[in-house]
Amino acid sequence: MVALRAGRERRIGAVMADAAANDDLVRRFIGAWERRDTAFIIDCFADDGVYHATPLDPIVGKAAIRDFVASFEGNPAGRLKIRNQVASATVVLQERTDHLTMNGNPVVLPIMGTFEMTPDGRIAAWREYFDLGPVREAYSAD
User: Fold this and answer.
1) Around Cβ 112, how many Cβ atoms within 10 Å?
2) Rounded-to-integer distance, Cα 28 and Cα 120, Å
């Protein structure tokens, strides 16, 4: 019985370590968006990774994601405030509020995100759920 318990504790400990590593990676990933660190952001994705801002079409693969991320490099850096984040060995759930400037206008976006993680700690899929209305308003304010 002791061996079983010890083995189970080791397995639980490994899962907790994976959860902690995933939590840390996603926090650093969001920080990289604030710094506009395209190289770090792209390195976090699996080769066949997917980004899907659910009001829009999914972006599939590192090359397409790189093009998308690079399109933000000329924009002012924003503040992406993580409100709540929960991580497991395979998924990170994140509630955040993004404070951005789009088309010269301030935009506040409450966002709920889901990060599916690979066993080696990369992002397989990143889905974000938010209202596109504030973004549309920023571009129609001219």
Assistant:
1) 15
2) 16
